[in-house]
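Sat 14:20. Reprocessing the chain from the morning session after the first attempt stalled halfway. Input below, unchanged.
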Amino acid sequence: MSKPVKNSHTITSTIHAGELDVTFLECGSGPLALCLHGFPDSPHTWRYLLPVLAERGYRAVAPFMRGYAPTSVPASGVYQTAALARDAGALHEALGGDERAVIIGHDWGAPAVCGAALDAPQRWSKVVSMAVPPGPALGAAFVSNLAQIQRSWYMFFFQHGLSNHVVAANDMAFIDMLWAQWSPGYEATVDLAHVKDALRNTDHLQAALGYYRATLGDGKRDPELAALQQRMGSEVPAQPLLYLHGENDGCVGRDVALAAQAMVPEHVQFEFVADAGHFMQLEQPERVNQLIADFVTG
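Finished this time. Tokens:
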């Protein structure tokens, strides 16, 4: 492991987990609380939550996800969500997690945490999912919900090779545009700087786009992950699960979240965060931190 670098409430370290060298932010000690980010984002999205979890007695860890610098680009070239779930399991093992561990995920991190909880339920006592609803509702929306198909236009654009150049052009102005559309009115200057640092290298940007190509296109898939991938598209973890959704989310509509709420079992708790869009943990940190901390310690 590399020598930790102090950064206000957190330290930064690197550890080998599975096929990756994973760099992560860390705060506190105690049972593991693993926080997974999405696109286009970085673990700095958890900068308000990590100290709160540490105060509640957790070792709060937020990794740079598969392919996001400085975490390594996987030699396998696999970016399906089941691989993200297995990454979480590998981190649980590498970091010495036990059955008290909790797992929290936003955007791509949301299906990843649900997949990790399905894959190895003995590792995770509670699950928090944010901005991408658990269960089959989002997949169904891609077939029947024209408003959501319009919101998700970028996912289809990413299947085309032209997107490689468009996303990288003009200091990644494409990413600026997505944040402005998904969280209207939020000043994202700091967050945009962090995510651009993670994706500025071509190989890392291709990795981030690879998540979408493995989901909707011809991106590489590992046959050994097929069974878990299928479960992730239909099942909801049995552990206590809190789902959070911003009322003004411009990426995944509130209507999709409401449809998901009608489908999930009773043990799944839904909370809609007022005056927040897609990046609710940054827009309304006090409310989101309280909801998560109370849930995982309750």
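The longest helix spans residues 162-182.
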